[in-house]
Amino acid sequence: MDVLALRDGSAQAQKCSSCDENNTATCYCFVCQSFLCTACFDAHQRLKATRGHRNVLINKLRAQDVEELIHRPVMCSQQYHENQPLEFYCEECKVPICHKCSVAIVSHNRHTMMDTQKAAQEQKMELANAMAKVKAEMVFCDDQVEKQVNFMDKNINEILFAEKKMTGTVEELIRDLPDLREHERKIKARLHEIYEAQQKHHAT
Asked: Which residues, including other chains, have CB under 8 Å from residue 25's CB and lie 6 or more apart?
């Protein structure tokens, strides 16, 4: 997931895997398969054994470099298990493990092991099913929101129509009944209260 962040140019996504100082990685060595900070990269360049390695600056990584990084073998982090790829998945512990872990680590004794590729495929299927359910819920929610908005628009139009009709009627009668102005004001206030209440309910 950190490597995928590199596609967006996020250099801060990776930390140096060569030292214990938790420095931000500035390049990647494709031979050692490790991220290097500036200090480790300088040391890498000084040693004859690693001087000729293929190193690429993180901000200069191309699309094919990122793809190569994503598909590189991931090594076990357990002590004395160096250079052991994580080939298995422990179903009970929900973690990827190497061959040595499956036979040497007590915590995985008698646990069910699965090939990492098979485990990944099953996880992808579960995620796909979850996404399908979420999308169905989103369609339902969008439909409900649209219905509520249409209902609110209809109510607003009805209130505006009622107010206009009432005003027209009052104008016709105002010559003979002066107190209708006060009655008009009260009805308008009541219509405004209804509108405010509906707006509040709609927002909720």
From this structure: 11, 14, 15, 16, 17, 35, 36, 37, 58
